[in-house]
Design goal:
Layout lengths: L3 H12 L2 H17 L3 E5 L26 H17 L3 E6 L3 H11 L3 E2 L12 H16 L8 E6 L1 H8 L8 E6 L5 E7 L5
Parallel strand pairs: 1-4, 2-3, 2-4
Antiparallel strand pairs: 1-5, 5-6
Length: 195
């Protein structure tokens, strides 16, 4: 059930003229070109007929929900768009899930897997869940080592919702201005087709 605020926001977005949305996307892309941001990318499209059935060995992709063919194309397309648009990419971080690692590899040809991006719903221990949320907030607030680059995080939707109250669909990109400490500002979000 939507709150009145959420319903009003959705209505405003639906009524927003297409050229205004395109202008907002252009501004966001220009900010990404300038570097210094944290770009949170939810893994590309997946095969929803698959389930995460056994996560005891994260290298066993056959026991996880994986990218489908359109998702693999989407990941390559986003990587191509970053290159075409001149969006600089520094560190690329990803969770241990195959769908995230594959998204990063197809787009950028490289990634660093980190424990604190593990998919939140797969964790039962409350202390670890809180650590995952706190760690993501810190990552969103931390500027890239090189201010001319962007940090890219290939993560999961529910982690982002818990840490920043931002929702993105599969393949969606949320852009953050890191402000240090635990502070960050959500600058906006893009769909892959916006690039």
């Amino acid at each position: 059930m939507f709150s009145r605020f959420t319903a009003g926001l959705l209505t405003a977005l639906l009524l927003m003229p297409a050229p205004l949305m395109a202008d907002n996307n252009a501004v966001l892309i220009e900010q990404m070109r300038d570097g210094g941001l944290v770009i949170y990318w939810r893994h590309a499209l997946t095969d929803r007929s698959q389930r995460d059935s056994d996560l005891s060995d994260m290298d066993r992709c056959e026991t996880q929900r994986n990218l489908n063919s359109p998702g693999r194309q989407q990941a390559r397309g986003v990587g191509d768009a970053f290159e075409r648009l001149g969006i600089p990419v520094g560190t690329v971080l990803t969770s241990a899930f195959c769908r995230n690692r594959d998204t990063a590899e197809l787009a950028f040809g490289r990634y660093e897997e980190v424990d604190d991006l593990f998919n939140l719903p797969a964790v039962r221990d409350q202390a670890r869940r809180e650590w995952l949320v706190t760690s993501l907030r810190e990552r969103l607030a931390t500027p890239p080592d090189d201010a001319a680059q962007n940090t890219v995080i290939v993560g999961h939707n529910l982690n982002l919702r818990a840490a920043a109250n931002v929702f993105i669909d599969e393949g969606g990109i949320a852009v953050f201005e890191p402000l240090g400490g635990n502070r960050f500002r959500h600058l906006g979000s893009l769909r892959p087709e916006d690039l």
